[in-house]
Amino acid sequence: MGTAMDLSEFAIVAAAILLDLVLGGMALQRNSRSITNQLFAVATVAISVWLALNFMCDQPRFYAHALLLNRLATGAATMMGLLLVAFVVCFPRRVVHLAWEWWAGLTPLVTVGVLSASTPLVIKSVTIESWGSNVVQGPLFPWVGAYGVLLLTGVAAMLARRFRAADSRMRAQYKYLYLGLGLFMSSTLVLAVLLPMVSGTNEFLSLLPFCTLTLLVPTSYAIIRHELMDVSFVVLRSVAYSAVMLAFAVFVVGVAQIARTEVSTTLGISPDALVLATVLATVVAFHPVRTLVEKATDSFFFRRTYDPSALLNDLGRQMASTFNETELAQLLSTELADKMRLTFAAVVFRCDDEIVTCASLESFEMPDLTEWLLEHEDLAAALFTDDPDEGAEDVAALGRAGVRVVAPLRRDGSWLGAIVLGAKQSGLMFSQQDLRFLDVLVSEAVIAMNNAHLFDERNQRVRELVALNQLATALGHSTELKSVLATAIHQIVTVTSADAGSIMLLDEDAETLTVAASVGVDPAIASTSRLRLGEGVAGWVAEHRRALVLPRDRTPSFEHELVRDDVASSICTPVVSKNKVIGVLNVSRVLGSKPFSQESFHVVSSFAGQLGIAIENARLFEELSKTFLGTIGALAAAVDAKDPYTFGHSTEVTRLAVATAEALELEEREVQRIRVAATLHDIGKIGIDADILLKSGALTPEERETINHHPAIGAGILAPLEFLREIVPYILSHHERYDGGGYPSGLSSEAIPLGARVISVADSYNAMVSDRPYRTGLSHQQAIDELRANSGTQFDPSVVRAFMRIVDSAPVEVPTTDLAAAAPIQPATTTVFLR
User: Fold this and answer.
1) What contacts 76, CB < 8 A, 6 or more positions away?
2) pTM score, two decimals?
3) Which strands make up the sheet holding 567-577, listed edge to edge?
């Protein structure tokens, strides 16, 4: 053996030893506390010693020590086998408790190692050959080989039993362990035992460095990166590609050869021209043939898995048209579970300070997962729970719960959520292909989630504007304070989907808040609640002029001041007008309901500003109403003062007219119109000469005609006032007759406004029972009989019946002297033309 050959063999052995030690060191660095990794690292050292001793045995410079080196090499091989068997028995568990059977089975290996290194029982002697030193077998050499075969059989049976009971992660590890051990032990057994026994030479031992690599490379991969070991799909598909394309290449070469030898001779064409034509045809056909081969191969292999490119394209198209975060999360979880053939898939994301989970399984419940994700918001890359670090019990717990992959969704460093995948239905591990697929999918999902969030924010602003417009429209239809407050609280409770709400107004003098309108609040609580400034939540809000969202803003200063213990979420905001707090707006949801979102807070806060303006307008309108009605009331009193015999007539007519209107079950707004019109029904008499009003005798036709003008005079007085335009027809027509014989317009039946028909009955009754200068008043019964007699002619029968009900019952007290207390009159919607 020459020097060059020695150097070449030395380089091979040195490279193998270095690679073995590096793999052992990597395994030890992966988890230095694992007994499995420790045994593997020590085994790589034993293998390196064995390789070094075997190399020295065949070097001429060490022939003088050849016997000792061979015996030591055999002893090292035995110790290597002992460590490898112990490693296999422990693999992949972290805690090792070897049964006594294994200790009994491994003990002979130690004995064999000692005997091999120190006695001629295994290696009797050595001879020097042209290729190196050759051992002469001792009497125990065949038995050592038999024992090795027996031990390997037991190890294989043990691994097969464990494989059947293992989960997908361990099965993937066992596959690579099988591959490494199978290649190594079979090649070692052949090179180091069987061939020397048959041929009587150790010449083949120079190939042992390559055997060690067949063991250590796949086994170390199983230890170090076993979470991504499902490469069988990629390997098999690549092999299929290669085989088919190799067959195509052989076919092309065969065709080219035939064309060169047969066709060229037959047709008399230059062989070089035919070869060139074949090459060109191959170049043209290569791409379509390759595409066809890939499609056919993929259709076969994708039966158990999925096509990442096709799935990404499909998901990308669907995500691009989905602008709702919840729908997007549901789409991802459903499609991933279906197309990747997973036991389940889920998307966990943050929405309005709330964690939402959308899963492919309706029965998906894993609260610990949400807690784990919130605790690990700093997770930057996909986590595979099949390979948790030593001591990462929380990750291992996720794995035991069925979670295999957690891929975080992050944007600009902030945590948006995570994609969570269960195990594959096939039992295969997640591979590098899956990792690359998830990397691209996560990037696209983050963009889609961001777009959905921006779209939702825009829609949120639109919803807020629509809600505020609806609220403003509702408030614009009412100017009475009580009606404004009732409309407001109903609208805000509806818009925010609240379970209860209230508006509390501030009494500046008493510095006290009282409930002015409420929905969903116990009436007893609403009527008795009194809060001073700074007291309770509402008092704190009114004093500090700052809105609160509970329970987010709960502080010790009012933590125990919540009126209702079953409130899960509430918004309390001050109502401000002219830079002063005039009240507090509250909405709440009970336990079990979804907490208020930021959108709800914006709506409530914005509406509180509009509510302040509406309350101020209602109060100004009431003051204006008081001014007008006070003035008109003074005029009515002046009319009554002109005629002592009719003093108090307007008051009594108003009482009777309002009671009749309520008996007819008219709307409150119509009752208020009748109230004001009845009070002012004779205001036109202010334009009649007092001599005519106070005349004790019969009136002349001219005087009667003058008296009959008082409805028109009254309508003329009130018509210019837009504020009272709606009641003008009642005053103008209160002397019309149901049969059309009245004045001033001769209206009949339904053409006479209902308010005028009501006032007519009340006015006639009071006039009949009252004394006049020219007659004595009738009795109550006589007046009732007159009304019945003229029902259907002078009076509306339905109004007369209602009037009979109220005069037959206890008198109804209707305060009409203070017109300022009456509800405001809305402007008329039609114009009254007087004749």
Assistant:
1) 46, 49, 50, 53, 113
2) 0.45
3) 530-532, 512-519, 500-507, 580-590, 567-577, 548-550
